[in-house]
Structure formats: C-alpha cells, structure tokens
Amino acid sequence: MGKNLSKKEVKEVLMILEELYPHAKAELNFSNPFELLIATILSAQCTDVRVNKVTEKLFRKYKTPEDYLKLTEEELGEKIRSCGFYNNKSKNILGTCEMLVKEYDGKVPDTREELMKLPGVGRKTANVVLSNAFFKEAIAVDTHVFRVSNRIGLSNSSNVLDTEKDLMGNIEKNMWSKAHHLLIFHGRRICKARKPLCEKCPLDSYCIYYKENVQ
Q: pLDDT tier at 72 (50, 70, 90 boundaries)?
C-alpha cells in the first residue's frame, strides 16, 4: 500500500475519470429496486455481463418476491446456475423474498441497516441498492473499487470497510455514487487486476502504483 493523495489531487483524479467515462453508471440491468437487489445478489463472484444474460429471462417471468417464492431452491438454482454458487444464491434469494413479504410488504427497504438484515445482503450489496435504486449517496467497495482506489492513492487500506471509510473521507459526499461508478469503469477497462494498462492510463502522474512499480 502506498500513501494517500491530497484532497485536491483526488478531485483532479475524479475530474479526469469523468472526462474518460462520461456515461459511467451501473452495468447491471434492472427496472426497479427489487430487480437490482436480485441482480446484485447474483453478481457476487460473477460478471455483470453473465448476470444480465440470466436476469433477462428471469425478470420476464418473476417480477415480485411472491413470484420467486413459488419456486423451490432447486428450481431457482437451475435458472441461475451459470452465475456460480447457485445453491447458496438460490437459498439467499428465497430467504430475502420471504423476509420482504413478511416484514416489508413486498417492498425493498431503503436503509442500509434494513437491507443488511436480508439474507445474502452485505454492506457492498446494500450500498449498490441504496445508490442506484434509491439515489442515496453511497460507495460500494467491490474488487474493482478496492483495487483501483488503493493503487491510485484515493485510499490506503488493506480491507474493504476501511477503504470505504477512506473514500468517504477523501471524496465529497455528492460525488460518492459517481466516484463508485468511475472507479469500476476504470478497473474494468484500464486498471485491470493482473495486467493494468498503465501505458493507456491518464492518471500516471498521480498514481502511487505507477510511480512505485512502473515508472
């Protein structure tokens, strides 16, 4: 881990990323909070591209928590098999649907605390739903956000929770959700896990990783 950039440098980095990815947004397909919740549970250890292929069929037929509760774990598991960890995800989705029906009148709650009570919903998933479905400022730290923010110097932490705290402290609140998408886009397109494309990156004059490992 390197050091943190100054708040001024963080702002400049985000401005560059905004120019690079003007249309950065969630890449999971959804039309309401419930669909996003299901898609985000499915996205654990799976690509958004794969999840979108599965949910394209799934969301056509299953639109409410009650719809899912007509399925057994095995039946749902078969429908989501290609997303990986399908037994666990099937169990969590049905458990979440049951809780939504019993405790929330079938509606997805809009607070982090309530979301995290749902089976299969951790802090990252809760933040994704809050940010993208309810338009509340939040930073969901997935593998891309964790890697990119610690490489560049927006954070200097060894775990996702401390990285989230660093980012919340270093980035103005009205930019939290936008920054989350910008960092994911950058991680998927340039700052890749195994072979980052540093020669294509416009952040080399800021990036701690570049200065310590490439320059």
A: very high
Question: Does residue 142 carry a catalytic annotation?
Answer: yes
Q: Which helix (H) or strand (E) holds 51?
A: helix 48-61
Query: Measured between alpha carbons, how far is 93 from 39 in angstroms, rounded to an integer?
Result: 10
Q: Please give the structure tokens belonging to residue 73.
A: 């774990």
Total length of the chain: 215
Which helix (H) or strand (E) is 68 found in, with range? Answer: helix 65-68
Told to judge if 110 belongs to the known catalytic residues of this protein, a careful annotator would answer no
Catalytic annotation, pick one of 48, 79, 89, 124: 124
Determine phi and psi for 133, rounding to 5 degrees: -100, -30
Listed residue (134, 136, 146, 177) closest to 37, CA to CA: 134
Q: 25-39 burial, b if ≥16 CB within 10 A, otherwise e? A: ebebebeebbbbbbb
Nearest Cα residue to 183 out of 147, 212, 130 = 147
Q: Which domains does the chain have, with CATH numbers?
A: 7-25+139-213 (1.10.1670.10), 33-133 (1.10.340.30)
Task: Out of 48, 79, 142, 166, pick the active-site residue.
Answer: 142
In this prediction, residues 169-177 reach a mean pLDDT of 96
Half-sphere exposure of 47 (CA within 13 A, CB side): 4
Contact 130, 155 (CB under 8 A): no
pTM: 0.93
CA-wise closest residue to 144 among 191, 101, 108, 105: 191
